[in-house]
Amino acid sequence: MGREPEPLFQAWSYFRRRKFRQCSDLCSQLLEGPPGEQEPDSEYSVFQAAWSLKTRALTEMVYVDEIDMDQEEIAEMVLDENAIAQVARPGTSLKLPGTSQGGGPSPAVRPVTQSGRPITGFVRPSTQSGRPGTMEQAINTPLTARPITSASGRYIRLGTASMITNPDGPFINLSRLNLAKYAQKPKLAKALFEYIFHHENDIKNALHLAALATEHAQFKDWWWKVQIGKCYYRLGLYREAEKQFKSALKQQDMVDTILYLAKVYLRLDQPVTALNLFKQGLDRFPGEVTLICGIARIHEEMNNISSAAEYYKDVLKQDNTHVEAIACIGSNHFYSDQPEMALRFYRRLLQMGVYNCQLFNNLGLCCFYAQQYDMTLSSFERALFLAENEEETADVWYNLGHVAVGIGDLNLAYQCFKLTLVNNNDYAEAYNNLAVLEMRKGHIEQARALLQTASSLAPHIYEPHFNFAVLSEKVGDLQRSYTAAQKSEEAFPGHVDTQQLIKQLKQHFAML
After folding, report:
1. SS3 of residue 509 by DSSP
2. Cβ neighbours of residue 283 closer than 8 Å, sequence gap 6 or more
3. Which residues neighbour 465 within 8 Å (Cβ) at sequence distance 6 or greater?
4. What is the mean pLDDT of the chain?
5. Are 158 and 198 in contact (CB under 8 A)?
6. Ramachandran angles phi, psi of 424, nearest 5°
7. H helices of 141-221, where?
8. 47 φ/ψ angles, rounded to the nearest 5 degrees
9. 141 vs 209, which has greater pLDDT?
10. Percent residues over pLDDT 90 in the chain
11. What is the DSSP letter of 88?
12. Number of H helices and number of E strands within the chain?
């Protein structure tokens, strides 16, 4: 038997292998040891080293990359005091994505979210389809487990992580900590800041420590300026955050700092400024994938789908295993009536090891529309097997309903849409399609009730409004038909059938 490694070295080995729980436990044993065993080394004592290592291990357990996690929730929209132009010029605002002339598929082909943006091929916090676009939509949206604010959801859960990792209480009692003393020890201060920011979620104390530390560094340490900017961003002080990130960039050009600054501009609804920042960053960091991907995301959010696809292709030239770029290009091909091309991209994801319900769901749809019927049902079966929650199962049954409609089996389609609603009772598209099937059977009242449910669940979708308008017009209820047709036109101004229906109704009213 060889000698047992030194405990501190063993803890460091656990940390390097991402075994943070064992690392934390071993550091706790070292910290509980008698003072005589804590022999000082060249710079810090063993006690300080174990304390710092345990702090980093606890932080890594709950660490979330701040660059990608950005989800504006209801309270942020209401309580935001930043003045933003109410009538933005076309193509310069994320609040009015429909104003951009991107040449992408219309809502008749590609579904849109509540805020009017097309559904992307890759789910990100800022592009989730259930995210309300305005306060009115948020209030009218059925209640779910979605947090009212981003702070009340993810951040508070991170803040209580200390009670989970230490049953006796938090590892560090922040109220009794002398932050000025730690700010004078840069190596300890950085580990302590990340612990306070990520693990304890105490932004005010983290900001205080960062301010003291950057003052001790005579305002020459770019890292502390970035951390102060992150604190300001979390507190909603975006202009102050912008100043800190710009100052940090002057001292040290870093890709992460550019991404943080772009986040600030996007929150201030300045996508053109963010695009210019990314392009300036690409001049200094040619071929940087995260910057190209950031440009593609902004174009996608502004409905400029063709430009977004070009930038995603540039991403793949630099990194041909980039999952987001492959998924978004595949989705764009599918909605551009090129299912065979989309199938190639989704097969590429499968070869890379992505193995989930969503991928097989997309493969099933691509196989069906590419007329490769032998693979369609097996892909959907695999998707049902891999579904992790009821929402995913509902998506699979909804798509199976479309397959059934495509092959002419309306009874099977009816059952599939019913199963969709069994798994997800808020599925507006399934209510709409069930209503159409009920109309074909001559069940007018059931169809009307289903269409009203669909339009209340998803006012941003034009189909329920249009179908309700057509149904009401057929039974002679012209006033309701006109109201629903106007809502349909508001959701999709370019829909020709809606315009023709409104024209007919106006002629009827003129004759009265």
Report:
1. helix
2. none
3. 455, 484, 485, 487, 488, 491
4. 83
5. yes
6. -145, 105
7. 150, 156-159, 161-165, 179-183, 186-194, 203-216
8. -60, -45
9. 209
10. 55
11. P
12. 28, 0
Residue 287 near residue 267, CB atoms below 8 Å:
no
User: Residue 176 to residues 51, 125, 205: CA-CA distances in angstroms?
Assistant: 16, 36, 12
The answer to whether the CB of 421 falls within 8 A of the CB of 427 is yes
Q: What is the pLDDT of residue 360?
A: 95
From the list 440, 448, 452, 507, the residue with the least C-alpha distance to 478 is 507
CA–CA distance, 344 with 205 (Å, rounded to integer)? 51
DSSP state of 3: P
Predicted confidence (pLDDT) at residue 149 exceeds the cutoff of 50:
no
Buried-exposed string 395-414: b where 16+ CB fall within 10 A, e elsewhere: bbbbbbbbbbbeeeeeeebb
Q: Give the residue from 180, 175, 193, 188 showing the smallest Cα distance to 59.
A: 193
Q: With 0-12 CB in 10 A as exposed, 13-18 as middle and 19+ as buried, what is 199?
A: buried
Q: What is the chain's length?
A: 512
Write the CA distances from 130 to 76, 112, 137, 387, 418, integer angstroms. 16, 11, 10, 19, 21
Q: Which residue stretches of 166-202 are H helix?
A: 179-183, 186-194
Any idea what DSSP says for residue 6? P
Beta bridge partners of 40: 45
What would the pLDDT profile of 318-344 be if each residue is shown by its tens digit? Answer: 999 999 999 999 999 999 999 999 999
DSSP 324-371: HHHHHHHHHHHHTT-HHHHHHHHHHHHHTT--SHHHHHHHHHHHHHTT
Rounded to an integer, what distance in angstroms lies between the CA atom of residue 218 and that of residue 214?
6
Give the global pTM. Answer: 0.82
* Ramachandran category for residue 449: left, alpha or beta (phi over 0 → left; psi -120 to 50 → alpha): alpha
pLDDT of residue 260: 95
Alpha-carbon distance of 90 to 240, in angstroms, equals: 28
Q: How many CB atoms neighbour CB 124 within 10 A?
A: 15
Residue 6: C-alpha distances to residues 3, 57, 114, 485 (Å): 9, 18, 58, 76
The Cα 460–Cα 469 span in angstroms is 16
Burial of 147 (0-12, 13-18, 19+ CB in 10 A): middle
CA atoms of 282 and 296, how far apart (whole Å): 13
